[in-house]
Amino acid sequence: MINMRRNGISWVIGGPQGSGVDTAASIFAKACALGNLHIFGKREYHSNIKGEHSYFTILVSSNHVRAHVDTIDVLAVFDTETLFRHAPYVSSDGMIVYDESILGHSIDSIPTIDSTSRSRSIELLEHHALGRDTDDMLKAVAMKGVKTYSIPCNNILEDITKKRNEPSLSKLTRLVNMIIVTASVALLDYNYDMLVNAIRYTFRARKSLADMNIEAATYTYNYTKARYDVDEIPLRLHAREYEDNTLLIQGNQSIALGKITAGCRYQSYYPITPASDESEFLEANEVIDESNAILVVQTEDEIAAITSAIGAALAGSRASTSTSGPGFSLMAEALGWAGINEVPVVVTLYQRAGPSTGLPTRHEQGDLLFAVHAGHGEFPRIVIASGDVEEAFYDTIRAFNYAERYQLPVIHIVDKALANSIVTCSMFDTSKVSIDRGRLVDHIDGAYKRFDLRDTISPRIRLGTSDVVFWNTGDEHDELGHITEDPELRISMMDKRMKKLELILDDLSDEEKAIMYDYGSDATIVTWGSCKGAVLDAIDMLREDGIRLNCLYIKLLHPFPSQLVANMLRSTRMLIDVEMNHTAQLSALLRNSIQKDADYHIVKYNGRPISSSEVYNTLKGIMEGKIKDRRVVLRHGV
Amino acid sequence: MASSMRLSDYKTDVHNDWCPGCGDFAILNAVQLALAELRIERHRAVVFSGIGCSGKTPHYINVYGIHTLHGRVLPFAIGAKLANPQLEVIAVGGDGDGYGIGAGHFVNAGRRNIDITYIVFNNGVYGLTKGQASPTLKLGLKTKSLPKPNINQGINPIMIALAAGYTFIARAYSYDVKYTKDIILKAIKHRGLALVDVLQPCPTYNDIYTREWFAGMDRVDEKGKSIPRIYKLEDQGYDPVVHSNDEDETQAKMMQTIAKSNEWADRIPIGVFYQNEHIPTYDDRISNRIPNYRTNPPALQEIERDGKASADISRLLNEMRSSYV
């Protein structure tokens, strides 16, 4: 195992769904952010309301971090399943902080653990000739150096109950999370004030809860410091000098803020993981300021979601819908309608693992080629993808500008990993943002032809604009928008629409299309979407080992920037594709557009986001000639 | 513009390719007559349509016309109305379009009571694809291009609309243009979601529900005069309106709607079955949450000034600062 310590501390908390794992992790993340530390947080959960295992990984560092790592430095445990699932990944100088009530439970008593995790744990236990209890697992990891710290959560709760004169202990059971988080914070010797403020922030709407949690935290912090000698622990987390230029934000929030800024005023959606969070955030913040409000409509299905967004766009609103693969599949027909009628509409596509329902709460980048091709017949569209939370904000605004400038549907691809990441990033700079409504006009002099063949992009008016009218149809149309089957007119209209693709490639700047992270190597990794963070972090780690690699990160997937990409790859001798699907879909685009295939394909499709550790290990293996296979399947995942 | 509106102003010169004798012509005329009578300015009205023969309707009307996808006319129309509630929105479509492929939208539109008018051209068949059975064709009927008698039951759109929450439910008969126009007029004036189901013979594919059948020419009274099947609800003293916002009255009006909607074959009622303006419209509901929604709706908001975003997100960003407590 590689020592990831140089990259920061990898902190993990797990527990049954519905037990407050997310809240506990959010408090830890906020405490780190308050101390001006960088974090990258990743949320994993089952398609289940209560009981199945969920966990949160937070990589915290004094450097900018862009992805999670596989090893765990601090494992916070308040249920048996978390111990068995994650203990095998705790690094030799890491630690486990656990509620002592997990002791004495067998792995065989956990109905929810999957067979992969179960076998992994049993193998480790048998290797050390140990039994199958939690105590055995703690012994097994202690043998490789992991320090384990027991916290008597029940005793602490009882003490607090007495102190508060609270008759019901059960009311306080959710405090177990808080106790374990606090113990881990104390053992890392992290600042108590940061933790208290993080609790205050998290429960800012419910003061009594905040007070109760702060009381538990204070008690536990002091208890832990008194009972254990933190100096024996090599891991340290210290707050840094205060700087006020970062955000602590999730991917879905960043996109929502992008939509508000872009002027999106109609958002439709049908509930689907992992896309709904964004719409719910927008609805909660529907009244933006005195003159701006966004209308969020929960429709009866995804077909109504996209068609009503198209209706709103025809009326003149910037409009969008957010969905995931299954919903996007239902939208395919309407995309073509927007294409033939040149309607600006934005679809935010949060990919998750397919096909069909697939792994509904898990990550994948399996919809790239579908986004590029969705819909029957041929029509222009733009497909862009974002690679991190900060970029997603600016890309969202670009998506709306593209949609109106070129009068077409824009598909903005993100994914579950990005949506559910919580990160620290630079404050969004809205002064850098511009709004371009293209050829939207308020009035027309004289006769109006919506699809005037004199221009590729014709003037567009809102429904309701005085003195003129226009027609739209899903049939092929004439310049006015009426149905036609005239063969020559058909050619003219197809050409008018498809010419937009050339226009887009001519217009957009290089950095809107693709970015080359050039470290002077003749080997280049090509990737897209949320693999970006893991790849860039791995490249930095490899550079420290003396291995240099470039990264070509592609943002505009359609129309594909063939010329630019070919130029950027001119001096590349070895090309390595990294992406999260089975068939290496980006490679298919590369083969098709620049007639070049990657020499290696590093792919992952087990539903768990790619980590910088995995990319690092694999690239190192390839560069050192130890990996001969041209296709490497990454498998890490809990 | 409004004061000088004439019927001809609402007509386009697009060639109409419906079959001779099609009931669609009469509905088209009724819509144009209603627009002219209400003096609705051409640019204020938008006619949305689905797919099929009826889907071509907007191309023949000289107002904004949006010919959408099969079954999707309602969500397209609703999106536009929500983005700009000042628009006068009329949706039209066939019975296959609205009650078949678009049935989910038909039902769910009722939950929202959006102030638009939905006119269904109901002829019992899928005309443009050459006469397959539509959702309203009764069980066991065999229209002329069906290989076998209809194996499905026909639905009762009036009852579905009532159950779904439509606040204006009416039926018209297309060969009575003036009456159809009157019903459409009432539907447009109604505050809330209005359904006008128009019985409309398809002379090419529905050889059962023909003009002659509706006129009862297959049966005669003692004087040898045919006994029409169609009759008008108001001629029987039927009052569709829920006058007070009263639970008992609403119940009673719903029950009589159900009873009347079940009449078919021998006597077929047309007219307004149900009208209730006591249910808040969707824009009432939105206005409770977004106070200036009606005057500053999504489509008309000034989202940029000199190319810069007009929305101020500093409050939201501030709460997301790493340092914010």
Can you tell me about this structure?
The complex is a heterodimer of chains A (638) and B (325). Helix content of chain A is 39%, strand content 20%. Chain A has an eight-stranded mixed beta sheet, with helices on both faces. In chain A, strands 9-8-10-11-13-12-19 form a seven-stranded mixed beta sheet, sandwiched between helices. In chain A, strands 16-18-17-20-21-22 form a six-stranded mixed beta sheet, sandwiched between helices. Chain A starts with 8 loop residues before the first strand and ends with a strand. With 325 residues, chain B is of the alpha/beta class. Chain B has an eight-stranded mixed beta sheet, sandwiched between helices. In chain B, strands 5-6 form a two-stranded antiparallel ribbon. Chain B has a two-stranded antiparallel ribbon with strand order 11-12. In chain B, a hairpin with a 2-residue loop joins β11 and β12. In chain B, α1 (24-37) packs across α6, α4 packs across α5 and α5 (157-164) packs antiparallel against α8.
Helix-strand blueprint:
The complex is a heterodimer of chains A (638) and B (325).
Chain A: E1 9-16, H1 21-34, E2 38-44, E3 53-61, E4 72-77, H2 80-86, E5 90-99, H3 115-127, H4 134-143, E6 147-151, H5 153-164, H6 175-187, H7 192-202, H8 207-227, E7 246-250, H9 251-262, E8 264-269, H10 276-284, E9 295-298, H11 302-315, E10 318-324, H12 325-330, H13 332-340, E11 345-351, H14 368-373, E12 382-385, H15 389-406, E13 409-415, H16 416-419, E14 422-426, E15 471-473, H17 487-507, H18 510-513, E16 514-517, E17 523-528, H19 531-544, E18 550-554, E19 556-558, H20 562-568, E20 574-579, H21 585-594, E21 600-604, H22 612-623, E22 631-634
Parallel strand pairs in A: 1-4, 4-5, 5-6, 8-9, 8-10, 10-11, 11-13, 12-13, 17-18, 17-20, 20-21, 21-22
Antiparallel strand pairs in A: 1-3, 2-3, 2-14, 7-14, 12-19, 16-18
Helix pairs in contact in A: 1-6, 1-7, 5-6, 6-8, 7-8, 9-10, 9-15, 19-22
Chain B: H1 24-37, E1 45-49, E2 64-67, H2 73-83, E3 88-94, H3 95-101, H4 103-112, E4 117-122, E5 125-126, E6 132-133, H5 157-164, E7 168-173, H6 177-189, E8 194-199, H7 211-214, E9 230-232, H8 247-261, E10 268-275, H9 282-289, E11 304-305, E12 308-309, H10 314-319
Parallel strand pairs in B: 1-2, 1-3, 3-4, 4-8, 7-8, 9-10
Antiparallel strand pairs in B: 5-6, 7-10, 11-12
